[in-house]
Design goal:
five-stranded parallel sheet, glutamine-fructose-6-phosphate transaminase (isomerizing) activity, binds 5-amino-5-deoxy-1-O-phosphono-D-mannitol, about 350 residues, Glutamine--fructose-6-phosphate aminotransferase [isomerizing], carbohydrate derivative binding, glutamine amidotransferase, about 15% strand, single chain, about 45% helix, 11 helices, alpha/beta, aminotransferase
């Protein structure tokens, strides 16, 4: 069942090229652009509330930036266990997007039920066909990632990012707010992404393996990112802590100086996302501050960028937000290799269940 891989997690990470291809099949191509028949008859929302937990919540945070920028829809992203108990302000003009791989997460379900009671429309973005989220939502978009067995979610997030990007394009086109080149560039990039991922994954694993030997003795890790990469920093930290049991915190790079930088010393490494985008100079200066405190730094970065780091993990550059699809497997593989090197039970980490059906 593991298809020759040592763990389901590794197999599922390596399935991501296929996952992207399956997500876009019938939904996006160069000739027709983007089509989401699941949303036929639904106007672009006035306000969008994304509700989710864990990795699905991180995917939602990532989608927020694209939906705001391409579709000019105000978006709030909410942790479902908080959303369900708040004194919510929702009405029939609001759309709630419930993101859940399993479609059975208790808090996400409770959040979407409250939203429906208040008259909002609920879209379910889930992976498991026939799950409770898919049955109770007004509209369902399936992520089609296939069964995810490992407790640590990997390919499901990749599929969620793909669908969130398609949603941003769909609503942006519906509203006429989509920047002229965005659809063509995004679709072209998405269509080419599976082959880029396929070619890169083996090399990413080698780098992750060698870095894991160097950093697995750390007791704590700081993950930093800005802009579209900030949610990826949160996800990298979550992956590391849940399967290797190493304490990790994900932060927006600019927040470092507001407290967390006090933690930095030679024993507390930083994993930075420092890619070629508008915010690179800011990220670089944040990393200079870490270096000045003798903090060791691993950075995922792009060719030709100069950075004050101990280990530069250079990945190929693709179009705009699609770079996150290459960052994600690096973070997953790093966590995987550290956990495996430390002899942890990668697929069944302690204290965790695949689907959290209780509060
Ligand atoms: O099935 P869901 O997407 O609703 O699950 C949400 C979280 O429980 C899940 O993402 C969890 O955080 C994973 N263990 C992360 O790897």
């Amino acid at each position: 069942q593991k298809g020759g891989y040592k763990h389901f997690m590794l197999k599922e990470i390596f399935e991501q090229p296929r996952v992207v291809a399956d997500c876009i099949a019938g939904r996006a191509d160069a000739v027709h652009g983007v089509r989401l028949p699941e949303l036929d008859g639904l106007a672009a929302p006035k306000r969008l509330h994304i509700v989710a937990c864990g990795t699905s919540y991180h995917a939602g945070l990532w989608g927020m930036g694209l939906i705001e920028s391409w579709a000019r829809i105000p978006v709030r992203v909410e942790i479902a266990s908080e959303f369900r108990y708040r004194d919510l302000i929702l009405d029939k003009d609001d759309v709630v997007l419930a993101i859940s791989q399993s479609g059975e997460t208790a808090d996400t379900l409770a959040g979407m039920r409250r939203a429906r009671e208040m008259g909002a429309t609920v879209i379910g973005l889930c992976n498991v066909v026939g799950s409770t989220v898919s049955r109770e939502a007004d509209h369902v978009i399936y992520t089609q990632a296939g069964p995810e067995i490992s407790v640590a979610s990997t390919k499901a997030m990749c599929s969620q990012l793909t669908l969130l990007l398609l949603l941003a394009l769909h609503w942006g086109r519906q509203k006429g707010t989509l920047p002229a080149d965005a659809q063509a560039s995004a679709v072209r990039g998405l269509v080419g992404l599976p082959s880029v991922l396929e070619a890169e994954l083996p090399r990413m694993r080698e780098v992750a393996q060698s870095l894991s030997r160097k950093y697995s003795s750390a007791r704590s890790f700081m993950y930093l990112g800005r802009g579209v990469q900030f949610p990826l920093a949160l996800e990298g930290a979550l992956k590391l802590k849940e399967i290797s049991y190493i304490h990790a915190e994900g932060y927006a790079s600019g927040e470092m100086k507001h407290g967390p930088i006090a933690l930095i010393d030679p024993e507390f490494p930083t994993f930075a996302l420092a890619l070629h985008d508008d915010l690179f100079p800011k990220v670089k200066s944040n990393l200079e501050e870490v270096q000045a405190r003798d903090g060791r730094i691993v950075a995922i970065t792009h060719p030709g960028l100069e950075l004050p780091v101990d280990d530069a993990w250079v990945i190929p550059e693709v179009w705009g937000p699609l770079n996150s699809f290459l960052v994600l497997p690096c973070l997953q593989l790093f966590a995987y290799e550290v956990a495996d090197y430390l002899g942890k039970d990668v697929d069944q980490p302690r204290n965790l269940a695949k689907s959290v059906t209780v509060e």
